[in-house]
Write a structure and sequence with these properties.
about 575 residues; alpha/beta; Rossmann fold; six-stranded parallel sheet; 16 strands; globular; binds adenosine-5'-triphosphate; DNA binding; UvrD-like_helicase_C
Length: about 575
């Protein structure tokens, strides 16, 4: 593939010192960083590599995709694309002993979520205590502890500089204070390249503490660097008005371009919502196919997890829109990993219980369901979603059931009892893990209190027998004709995937929140606004709605070719 290398880009490639590249969505920041890397890779000494840090597994995936377009196989081996967390954990795992005299152990995020909701007091202080006194470290403290190590040991810093002659920091506008601390230490011993787009700053405030609007000013006042601005470039949707439309939404100033690339669809009443959403996705697929894209990728984006789940339910059944019949649309959901994993573990523990029917398996199942609801409660509290209280009540219900079963008492009434009754109606398991998984999962779906587990577990892929999970379960059945240990196996496979950073390339239709779409790219994007929930513009941000506008721009600019916005007719206008 041929890339345009203008003077500005060449100056970044040639720069021997630090550099900051600012640019909008699709301006080519990642590509430029990789072109610079390509020029250096040959000259690296044995053992040296270039490190490219980003925030999420999705972003890592996107960068790896670009790597495959730009670097050859040998070059790919010398560039290490990682999340901040995985980079920090490597360092803490090897050198954590320097901090408190003993090796550090990681607390899995699932366990952290559970302990946080159950802890009476300030969790930040408690997690620091856990690290200092017990040598157990939570995800949120990885960056701070790494910074502490670098600040405390010049030897370690210097070695890092030798190992990594170039460190690339993606989406630097989103870095928090602790990440900045360790990056600043690194910049004293190696060359750093910062990529940023201030208008893609969507994690500021309650989402991630320590993320600041003036991060780039802080950077520029601390490090001497070459600054290059690519804001006028757009290679993702160069021939379309998508970026121009998104920029209008960002500024709140019209007129919005009247273009075939971004369309709007309204609905009047709540009871028109389902059919309108279904039609919007169908018409987007159709439009993209008509443009010659045979297998289009489409992201369906909404502001909250609740609305994403509702849209998934809508796409699963037929509808009729203006007399037109719409067939169900197969889709994937990009979900919160921790919720998905604990929902998957809850289903696996029910599978274990059905196959073993022992008091231990029964108690473990109620415990895993309780755990899921504790994590859900924690998730709702952290990300401002609805349902924290309900999740807490359900957790308490299953927690009580767990205690009763442990004491050998019978369950008399309530959800845990009705769920057990539903499970006991399942005919014998077959030994085909995919079928058995779906049977047990269906019992969750049919139960009023446990539907959420069914929904969250949809991300756990167990559909093809070749999947790691299915293979592990099939092996267990062959050994013992039960699914004993299924919950443990699933937890370990999912935790591993989480750390390694696996995430599939999107195919077909994918549903996710706007926040989750960051860093991704699709042929088409459908953005959905609810009638009474998940508005595009949050009232509390009035009058300028700046954070909402940034979020909307991120969503719109994920599209290469076509965007469709679905809104209630009464929604506030996007521009003045
Ligand atoms: N210099 C260039 N010449 C031609 N095409 C380019 C160039 N730079 C980038 N592209 C193409 O533009 C698209 C977007 O590039 P890239 O992912 O590097 O942008 P980005 O600024 O990192 O985007 P985002 O901030 O949205 O993640 C890719 O398809 C890439 O191949």
């Amino acid at each position: 593939m041929a890339f345009t290398i203008c003077e500005k880009r060449q100056s970044v490639i040639d720069e021997q010192g630090h550099a900051l590249v600012i640019g909008g969505p699709g301006s080519g920041k990642t590509t430029l960083a990789l072109l610079k890397s390509k020029g250096i890779l040959d000259s690296l000494a044995k053992g040296q590599s270039i490190i490219f840090l980003s925030f999420s597994r999705a972003a890592v995936q996107q960068i790896l995709k670009r790597c495959r377009e730009i670097l050859n196989k040998e070059e790919m081996k010398r560039i290490d694309v990682r999340t901040y967390h995985s980079f920090c954990w490597d360092i803490l795992h090897c050198h954590g002993r320097l901090l408190g005299g003993r090796p550090l152990k990681m607390m899995a995020p699932s366990e952290e979520g559970i302990r946080r909701t159950q802890f009476d007091g300030d969790w930040t202080t408690e997690s620091k205590r856990l690290k200092d006194e017990d040598g157990i470290i939570c995800f949120d403290l990885f960056a701070a502890a790494t910074a502490e190590l670098f600040e405390g040991s010049s030897h370690l810093r210097i070695w890092m500089g030798r190992l990594f002659p170039l460190v690339i920091l993606d989406e630097f506008q989103d870095s928090d204070d602790d990440q900045w601390r360790f990056v600043q230490q690194l910049s004293a011993v190696t060359q750093t390249l910062f990529l940023a787009d201030t208008e893609q700053r969507i994690f500021e405030g309650s989402f991630r503490p320590g993320v600041r609007a003036d991060r780039l000013d802080i950077l520029k006042s601390a490090i001497v660097l070459r600054e290059v601005d690519l804001r006028d470039d757009n290679y993702r949707s160069a021939d379309s008005d998508i970026l121009a439309f998104a920029d209008c939404v960002l500024s709140g100033k019209g007129p919005l371009p009247n273009t075939k690339d971004v369309k709007r669809l309204s609905y009047d009443y709540k009871n028109q919502f389902s059919a309108t959403v279904h039609f919007a996705v169908a018409v987007t697929l159709h439009t993209l196919r008509k443009c010659g894209i045979d297998d289009p990728t489409v992201a369906v984006l909404a502001r909250s997890n609740d609305l994403v789940a509702e849209i998934s339910d809508i796409l699963e059944v037929p509808h009729s829109y203006n007399g037109k019949d719409l067939k169900p649309i197969p889709h994937d959901i990009v979900w919160d990993q921790e919720l998905s994993a604990s929902a998957g573990v809850a289903i696996a523990s029910a599978l274990e219980f059905v196959s073993l029917d022992t008091p231990v398996a029964r108690e473990a199942m109620h415990a895993k369901i309780e755990e899921y609801f504790l994590i859900k409660k924690d998730f709702c509290q952290r990300y401002g979603g609805r349902g924290a209280q309900t999740a807490g009540t359900k957790a308490a219900r299953f927690g009580k059931a767990k205690a009763k079963v442990a004491e050998g008492k019978d369950l008399t009434q309530g959800s845990p009892k009705t769920f057990e009754t539903a499970l006991s109606a399942i005919p014998a398991l077959t030994g085909d893990p995919v079928r058995d998984w779906k049977t047990v999962r269906a019992a969750f779906r049919a139960h009023d209190d446990l539907k959420a587990i069914f929904q969250d577990a949809r991300m756990v892929r167990l559909f093809r027998a070749s999947d790691t999970l299915a293979t592990a379960l099939a092996g267990r059945w062959m050994e013992r004709a039960t699914y004993e240990g299924a919950a443990r196996m699933i937890r370990s496979v999912l935790d591993q995937e989480k750390l390694i950073g696996l995430e599939r390339d999107p195919k077909g239709v994918s549903l996710m929140t706007l926040h989750k779409s960051k860093g991704k790219e699709f042929d088409g994007v459908v953005m959905i606004e609810g009638m009474y929930s998940s508005p595009f513009l949050l009232e509390r941000e009035a009058p300028d709605f700046a954070p909402s506008r940034r979020l909307l721009r991120v969503g719109i600019t994920r599209a290469r070719s076509f965007v469709l916005l679905v809104r209630p007719r009464t929604a506030s206008p996007l521009i003045d």
